Each structure stands twice: as structure tokens, then as C-alpha cells.
Amino acid sequence: MKILILGNSSIFKRKVYLGLKNFRNLEIEVASRGKVIKKKLISKSYNSYSDALNKTEAKLVYISLINSEHYKWALKALNKHKHVIVDKPITTSFNETKNLIKIAKKKKLLLSEAIVFQYDLRFKKVTENLDLNKSTKIFCKFHIPKLQKNNFRYFRKYGGGCLNDMSPYASYLINFFFKNKKYTFIKNNKYYFNKLINKFDISLRSKKVSLDASFSFDNDYKNQIEIHNNSKIFYIDYFFSPPINKKLKIKVYDKLKSNQKIINFNRQNVFYSYFVDIFKLIKKNKFNFFYKEINDREKIKKKIS
Q1: Any idea where the domains of the chain sit in the sequence?
Q2: Backbone angles phi, psi at 207, to 5 degrees
Q3: In what order do the strands lie in the sheet with 136-143?
Q4: Summary mean pLDDT of the chain
Q5: CB pairs under 8 A, 24+ apart, for 34-43?
């Protein structure tokens, strides 16, 4: 099997490649405007995205470019009859995303936004033990320190801003915890710096579930979720972007027993688990549910924005 990567990005080099290299008989092709360092699984490189799409035999394209280029190249890849994965955010507008869904659906192609924290075994362990019909309170924070001043996330024309970059996480959580529930936004605050949103806070309530979340750039690092459910409190650190070189854990506090325990996990690469799922779905030709999931999350992002 072959996969074409459009963009030799930091996330590709740090996590995506390390997830893909665990698959046997997989060839990776990379298109980049800069130099591509030769690695074991990289069988071919291109210095033009257009040439890559015209010449590759890969049936799956992973787009890892600056936000403003996601739609353009996802559209070109779909029109070349390629399955497409796009780094978050899938696009920078709801109308663009709807058009990609329409084309993917018509051509019977996979379209996926690469949100992967839900493949973390810790998240799966916690959510398997939740009863969302009982009072559930979720608190989460994802704050990142100041980036280099020339980082594309600081520029509107490149699709920058905290809202574009982090609202996919918020929309996934809302879609997951409030699915089929009526909910109300209690708080939806945005904070601007240099005409770009660099922080947003949201609070939502349904009959049994509440979510309070904060996302920001240029802040002290925080990456955590705390879930109160059925007399227990679950705490996960490094939640939205689990590192691949650390042994991770869940802290569980039982209010009835007044005790705390720690559940330890081995190192994991959530991108590997994500691609296991993706390759199976492509092989079985069962990926229609992605269209609805993406559309539902985009509707939520529109509400947040």
C-alpha cells in the first residue's frame, strides 16, 4: 500500500511518520517545497504538490499543510479520486467543508479530519466507565506557550488563530459528550490579540452533562481533562496531544471510598491506532459515517465561532 503525504510538516515528522513506520508493506511518498530527509519508508519525494498528485499511484493522500491550503489540496486530491485525510482544521470555513463532503460522498471516497486524541487508551478506558445518564461534569484546558513569531498560526491569511487551530478539539468533545442531547451555551467567550483570536472559553449544559473548556495560545502549558461522574473523578494529563515517549496514566479519585488510585499505561502513538482504523475502513469500504461526523462537528464549530 502507498500513502502520499502533502507537506513535510512538524507533526508528520514527529508523530505521523512514527505511527506509519509500524506498518508492513507500506510505502510513504512525500511532497514538500523543502528538503525531505530520507527515511526507511519514504520511497519517493516530490518538490511539487501538483506533480505528486499527477504522478503518484497512492490511493490515500494525507494533507499536512498550513490551514489555508487544506481545502485547495483536499479538493484536488478528491478530484484525482484519492481517499483524503486532512490535518485539523479540515478547512477554514463550513462551506468549504460541506463541498469536500459532497464530492467525497459522490465519488465514494474516504474523507477524514485527523483528530486522534480519542484513540488514546486512557480516554477509551475512562469513557467505557462513564454513565452519561447520571450527573457528569467535564473540565478541560488546552493552553500552549508562545510560538515562534513567524509561525503561520499567527497570520490570518494562513488560517491562523486559536479558534481555527483548536476548535476541532472542542467540537469533538461536544459532539461526543452531548450527542443526541439538547444543550445550551452558557458561555462562549473569545479574546483577541493582533486581530486574531488567541483564546476562547466555552461552557455548555444539558440536563445531566456540563462542559467547561478553555483553549489558548501564548499561555502556560496545560493539556488536561477532568471528568466527574458517578462518584468518581477521572484526571488525564497530556490529553489532547498524548506524547509518544512517555508512560502515561489516569488518576481516579473515588469520592465514596475517599481514595485515589493511578492506572498506568505503556507508551503509545495514537496516530498508529488511527491509521489501523483508517486502513481497515478503506479495505472494507465502510467510511460513510465520517461524512456525518465531520458535518456535525463543523456545525458545532460554526456555533463556537
Answers
A1: 2-114+271-304, 117-266
A2: -60, -40
A3: 184-193, 196-205, 209-216, 136-143, 222-229, 232-237, 248-254, 259-265
A4: 95
A5: 34/8, 36/8, 41/17, 43/2
Distance CA 53, CA 30 (A): 11
Q: How confident is the model at residue 62 (pLDDT cuts 50, 70, 90)?
A: very high
Residue found under cell 462551506: 95
Residues 119, 120, 123: CA angle, nearest 5 degrees: 100
CATH code for residues 2-114+271-304: 3.40.50.720
Rg (CA), the chain: 20
DSSP-based three-state secondary structure for 246: coil
**Across 93-108, average pLDDT:** 97
> How many other β-carbons are positioned within 10 Å of the β-carbon of residue 102?
13
Was domain 117-266 assigned CATH 3.30.360.10? yes
> pTM (2 decimals)?
0.95
- How does DSSP assign 187-221, residue by residue? EEEEEEETTEEEEEEEEEE-SSEEEEEEEESSS--
| Distance (Å, whole) CA 161 – CA 154 | 6
Instruction: Locate the DSSP E strands across the chain.
Output: 2-6, 27-31, 42-46, 60-63, 83-87, 111-114, 136-143, 184-193, 196-205, 209-216, 222-229, 232-237, 248-254, 259-265
How much is the pLDDT for 238? 96
Q: Tell me the C-alpha to C-alpha distance, in Å, between residue 156 and each of 70, 153, 253.
A: 14, 8, 43
H-helix segments, 26-150: 49-55, 70-79, 94-107, 121-128
Query: Stretch 174-191: mean pLDDT, rounded?
Result: 95
Strand-pair partners of 42: 28
